[in-house]
Design a protein that fits this description.
The complex is a heterodimer of chains A (433) and B (250).
Chain A: H1 2-16, H2 19-44, E1 53-59, H3 64-75, E2 79-82, E3 84-85, E4 88-89, H4 92-100, E5 106-110, H5 114-134, E6 153-156, H6 162-195, H7 228-242, H8 245-257, H9 260-265, H10 271-300, H11 315-339, H12 343-360, H13 372-378, H14 382-396, H15 404-427
Parallel strand pairs in A: 1-2, 1-5
Antiparallel strand pairs in A: 3-4, 5-6
Chain B: E1 5-14, E2 24-32, E3 36-40, H1 47-54, E4 62-67, E5 70-71, H2 76-80, E6 83-86, H3 98-108, H4 113-126, H5 142-152, E7 160-164, H6 172-187, E8 191-196, H7 199-205, E9 208-213, E10 216-221, H8 223-229, H9 236-244
Helix pairs in contact in B: 3-5
The chains are: A mainly alpha (433), B alpha/beta (250).
Chain lengths: 433, 250
């Protein structure tokens, strides 16, 4: 144990002798969490925000349907509708050109006579229904002509992501259904008024019969509302934490290149002691990094109009999850540093493999959205285990026992990687043989 | 010096991976207790490979090494306690101070407290480093780094000390201090195994030398006696050049 503490002290001194590096080690992950959370804020948002995406809106209908569309899209508070550019109304051709040039990502064109054509189509539908089902002796179809469907044109910038395009199309289809339903209802009322002129038809305000209540089940009494912050902070914090691999591998390779490791090989001290001293120091670094990232989630993100991170009250579970996630990252770093021959190898493979493991582990695209093969692959990523554990604690209010399987997986990963590194170094000395 | 072998080398052969020629080719010799033994040879002759095997850094392809009667393959951990190594590279942590480096390596040998502090202090004074002990090694001159490198291998007072070109690239003053110290160390009963390119230095310092070339020992004995036996050579260097040739090596 005495040798361990001496090696720990040495690692600690080396670490603090590079104050600029130390500041970067703590500051960069915080900056990353804040910036990337802000970038992803819109994409993940489930909470109403100020309108953000500008949409060119060409309303050549200038009647009820066009106006209701405009009103609906504006009320969605996701889009800023732009009908004029430089005080000139936007035309279909201008809208198309602006989207083509990538200046705007979406343009909606409501064609001329849209309201009139929809009304005619609905009238036909209503009258057909009344003629065939209710009053076959009455001719409700007199004066009604058939009409084609209306084509609302939406221009999309090819760079727009599918998920965003689908969200926009869903919103517009929803507005359209509402508008059409209301018009059908009103047309029926009109026809009935004609049929029963003396009957005092009550004014019925059409409201949907079904509402959807969102509930987010949680293990704690107080419901934890999912937010961009709740999703993003754990994801980016784990990602940043695993990037400890880069300075750690650098420390191992430097020790080897400078010859100190060769001297240590002739001294009665085990590789495990040397490795564990590094783990001890870098574990502290990871812990502080995570703490700072969580504090950034709680106190810095709200400064940018984002919801604060809610960590619940299960501090022990969070602390243990942080420790085991850090250990997994450090075990991986020790293994890479031991296997890599040069700084370049370690830095390139280390950073790229973390990006791959993060993507594979569902840190950027949720695992449930992946195909079955990728979903299976995700279960092999230690970043996925850490992510699942933190989401359970932060979003579901899980206890330490609930995340026990993830803790065991991460600890096992650490034990396996560091043991392989120690065995490899014992069998293969750090000089050419 | 007693003619009792503390290191026995028998039929030692080493092939590096992928190499057709051996780095060491069937070397056999004994190194006596308390002697200063020098391995001399041109670049790539097999000096560092021999020392590395003797220190247990990697195993030989063939042959046997015993240190103090112990087979190095079977007793490496025990042997670590009785050997010290001063590698060719300055094997120190450059962002730590000289004192911190020495404390760390002393601790790794199990030394601590007052005993370690006193021993470090003694060596720092002996090598003229006491004023620089609290400065980072990165700020040291080449000679100062070499001196700290030497002290780090001596702290536990090893019975056998391996030095791989300890005086390479340093000034005359630092070299002089180191060589004087090695003589003193020998007098306290330490066996010193040493490699060098400096023939004059080896001639003065070593009780015996082995001239190695292409992995083979081509001459072995007391440097003065070797020269005396071959009167056509005026010193060890001319004999060395004759034996190993004047052609450039890798």
């Amino acid at each position: 144990m005495f040798k361990y503490f001496a090696a720990y002290r040495k690692e600690w001194l080396i670490l603090i002798r590079d104050p600029a590096g130390l500041v970067l080690l703590f500051l960069m992950p915080m900056v990353m969490v804040v910036i990337l959370s802000m970038v992803q804020e819109f994409g993940w948002s489930t909470i109403s925000r100020e309108p953000q995406v500008p949409v060119l809106f060409v309303n050549t209908d200038q009647d009820s349907v066009g106006n209701k569309f405009q009103q609906g899209l504006t009320e969605a508070k996701i889009f800023t509708l732009i009908s004029q550019l430089d005080s000139v109304p936007v035309t279909r051709e201008v809208a198309r050109q602006k989207v083509l040039e990538g200046e705007y990502q979406i343009a909606v064109v409501i064609p001329e006579r849209t309201s009139e054509r929809i009304r005619a189509k609905i009238r036909l539908l209503v009258n057909k229904t009344m003629t065939s089902l209710m009053m076959p002796d009455q001719n409700f179809l007199a004066g009604v002509t058939n009409t084609d469907s209306v084509e609302v044109i939406i221009y999309f910038d090819p760079a727009v992501r599918n998920s965003f395009r689908n969200a926009f199309l869903s919103s517009t289809r929803e507005f359209n259904s509402k508008i059409e339903s209301r018009m059908i209802f009103e047309t029926f009322q009109d026809e009935l008024r004609k049929l029963f002129p003396g009957f005092n038809m009550p004014v019925i305000d059409y409201e949907p019969s079904v509402y959807f209540k969102e509930i987010f089940p949680s293990g704690v009494e107080e419901e934890i509302l999912p937010s961009t912050t709740q999703h993003n902070v754990p994801s980016w914090a784990i990602f940043a934490m695993f990037f400890i691999v880069v300075p750690l591998t650098s420390s191992i390779i430097k020790e080897r290149e400078e010859g100190s490791l060769i001297r240590l090989m002739t001294i009665p001290v085990t590789y495990m002691t040397i490795f564990m001293a590094k783990v001890g120091v870098y574990l502290f670094v990871c812990f502080i990094q995570f703490l700072l990232m969580v504090l950034a989630g709680i106190y810095v993100l709200p400064l940018f109009n984002m919801p604060p991170l809610e960590v619940g009250a299960n501090y022990l579970a969070i602390a243990i999850m942080t420790i085991v996630s850090s250990l997994a990252a450090l075990g991986y770093g020790i293994l890479l540093g031991t296997l890599s021959k040069t700084h370049q190898q370690a830095a390139a493979f280390g950073s790229v493999s973390i990006v791959v493991l993060a993507a594979m582990g569902g840190l950027w695209v949720p695992v449930y959205l992946m195909g079955s093969f990728m979903r299976h692959l995700a279960t092999f990523s230690p970043l996925n285990w850490a992510h699942a554990g933190f989401l359970d604690i932060f979003l579901r209010g899980s206890s330490l026992m609930d995340v026990f399987p993830e803790i065991i997986k991460l600890l096992s990963f650490f034990a396996v990687t560091i043991t392989i590194a120690a065995i490899y170094r014992t069998l293969k000395p750090p000089i050419s043989t | 010096m007693t003619e009792e072998s503390i290191i026995g080398i028998r039929d030692l052969t080493k092939y590096y991976k992928g190499a057709d020629e051996p780095a060491i080719d069937h070397i056999s010799l004994g190194i006596f207790k308390d002697e200063i033994f020098g391995f001399l040879g041109p670049n790539g002759a097999g000096k560092t490979t021999t020392i590395s095997i003797l220190c247990g850094l990697f195993p030989p392809t063939k042959g046997k090494v015993t240190i103090d009667g112990l087979d190095i393959r079977l007793n490496h951990e025990k042997i670590k306690h009785i050997i010290g190594i001063v590698p060719q590279e300055v094997a120190l942590y450059h962002t730590l101070t000289g004192l911190e480096n020495l404390q760390f390596f002393g601790n790794m040998y199990g030394l601590k407290g007052k005993a370690l502090k006193e021993r470090i202090g003694e060596y720092l004074v002996r090598f003229g480093l006491e004023k620089f002990a609290r400065k980072q090694v990165s700020t040291y001159s080449g000679g100062m780094k070499r001196r700290v490198n030497l002290i780090a291998g001596l702290l536990h007072k090893p019975r056998i000390l391996f030095l791989d070109e300890p005086t390479v690239g340093i000034d005359v003053q630092s070299r002089n201090v180191i060589l004087e110290f090695l003589h003193e160390l020998q007098e306290t009963g330490t066996t010193i195994i040493y490699t060098s390119h400096y023939m004059e230095e080896a001639e003065k310092l070593c009780n015996r030398v082995a001239i190695i070339d292409q992995g083979k020992i081509i001459a072995i004995g007391n440097p003065k006696e070797l020269v005396a036996l071959n009167p056509e050579f005026k010193n060890l260097e001319t004999m060395f050049l004759h034996l190993t040739g004047k052609g450039l090596r890798d």
